[in-house]
Design a protein that fits this description.
By secondary structure, this protein is α+β, with helices and mostly antiparallel strands. A four-stranded mixed β-sheet has the order 21-22-1-23, with helices on one face. Helix 10 packs parallel to helix 12. The structure holds ligand EPZ. The site of ligand EPZ has 24 residues, from helix 1, helix 5, helix 6 and helix 12. Ligand EPZ binds next to helix 1, helix 5, helix 6 and helix 12.
Length: about 425
């Protein structure tokens, strides 16, 4: 097992280039199943969730080949199986996209119950509801989900909760369905739009992604034989933005979409840090003083992302005054606060709220990453803390951040990966 050893404090300075979005890549890779042909994906992040997605496609019979560090060729014409390997699918959350994709292409899917970050209950009732509305029978038992249909017919689907995964899965299952599907109360995250753009590039007819209602006119087949470049990672960009604020540094973030970062940018300005953007793909964040207190409530896009909540928690832990976070998406996303408290923070979590009494500085400590974004937050905490921080359970971080320690090292952080 590897651990990260961080020696602080460091004021981060320099440029960082953002990778392709994890949450788009892990949906687009299974979506290639619908093509029944070949396509090339560019700007693919080199992270473990992508690697396992590729392995599963290979197990199903696809030909998957890396053409370069971030370029992936996928040929799904030889897919023969609709049974995804249960041991692999249970390792990460996004394996649920195999259900929509296999159901759409082969009218049958058997996939192990998805794993992924432990953030509390993660039901999939809205996914099942969408598949059933299209005519599938869904069974969830013995650790797996089976969906089968004689044929899929477009329908109206109203999501009871705004769900990223259910929105994408409903799109995947309806692209090749007969007739028109209208999905209401959908999620609007950048990765939803990216999946729709990918499918449209391959011949689908999806309209309205990025708004509350998505309309899909079913097509007979997708054509493939095209390339698609995955959108930059909103959360990775946000993670580096907040590392600049926490460390009182000066970071220029390149290859991001600044429009996707507005909720984070607004909070950074409220906390007294500086933001300069070209309104396109570059944003500079710098901070010369202790950040001011603020409050956040997480919400679906365009609200403040839950996946940025732990990183903001680090900033709040050293901010001037008392800040409050209200987590409205996940019931158990404050596990990192116990680790920050080991480092001298004064955080009181209570249910879905946590109160951060800002302290002047943190001090190094051994800490445990409970999930992906908690791990990223602990790296930032280690960078700003006095002394040495050892971060354990970093496989969570590797699931979603490409070369994170290298990127932080280039900004001046003293961070090493150590194999034990
Ligand atoms: C996606 O998870 C992301 N994962 C998560 O990112 C992210 O935290 C989350 O969206 C919210 O933005 C991937 O994209 C792979 P949801 P997902 O369905 O799709 C409830 C990270 O760190 N719900 O939008 O699983 C659910 O309980 C990860 O990168 C139902 O009730 O999230 C939650 O309260 C962690 N029934 C809310 O909806 C359902 O059928 C939003 O969940 C589905 C969801």
């Amino acid at each position: 097992m590897d651990k990260l050893v961080v020696k602080g404090p460091t004021r981060l300075k320099g440029n960082v280039i953002i990778s392709g979005a994890k949450n788009a890549a892990v949906a687009i890779i299974p979506a290639t199943i619908l093509i029944n042909g070949k396509c090339v994906l560019e700007n693919v992040p080199n992270i473990s969730d992508v690697k396992i997605s590729c392995d599963i496609l290979k197990d199903l019979g696809a030909k998957v080949e890396w053409l370069g560090e971030h370029e992936l060729s996928i040929d799904t014409s030889s897919i023969i199986s609709s049974n995804a390997p249960l041991d692999k699918t249970s390792k990460f959350r996004a394996s649920y996209y195999l259900i929509g994709s296999l159901l759409g292409r082969k009218l049958s899917a058997t996939v192990g119950l998805p794993g992924g970050c432990n953030l509390g209950a993660r039901p999939i009732d809205q996914h099942a509801k969408a598949f059933e509305a299209l005519g599938a029978k869904v069974d969830i038992s013995q650790g797996k989900i089976t969906a089968k249909a004689k044929k899929l017919i477009g329908n109206s689907i109203y999501m009871d909760v705004v769900s990223v995964g259910a929105t994408i899965n409903a799109m995947l299952a309806s692209v090749l369905a007969e007739g028109t599907t209208v999905i209401e109360n959908v999620a609007k995250e950048p990765h939803i739009v990216d999946v729709a753009n990918f499918l449209n590039t391959m011949g689908a007819d999806i309209r309205g992604a990025g708004t509350d209602v998505i309309k899909i006119n079913g097509v007979k087949q997708l054509h493939g034989n095209a390339s698609y470049s995955i959108v930059p990672d909103q959360i990775e960009a946000g993670t580096f933005m907040l590392s600049a604020v926490a460390s009182r540094g000066d970071i220029t973030i390149k290859n991001c979409i600044t429009k996707h970062l507005e909720s984070i940018t607004a909070k950074i300005i409220e906390m007294g840090a500086n933001v300069e953007t070209d309104g396109g793909d570059t944003i500079r964040i710098w901070c010369n003083k202790r950040p001011l207190k603020a409050n956040i409530k997480t919400a679906p896009y365009p609200g403040f992302p839950t996946d940025m909540q732990p990183q903001m928690g680090v900033v709040f832990s050293i901010a001037d005054g008392t800040s409050i976070i209200n987590e409205s998406i996940w019931e158990s996303r404050f596990q990192y606060t116990a680790e920050l408290n080991k480092m001298g923070a004064k955080i009181t979590p209570q249910g879905k709220t946590a109160v951060f009494e800002g302290v002047k500085s943190l001090s190094g400590s051994p800490v445990y990453s409970s999930d992906l974004r908690a791990g990223a937050a602990l790296i930032i905490a280690g960078i700003i803390a006095n002394g040495e921080t050892e971060i354990y359970n970093i496989h969570h971080i590797d699931r979603g951040y490409e070369n994170i320690e290298e990127k932080f090292r280039k900004l001046g952080a003293k961070i090493q990966r150590v194999s034990e």
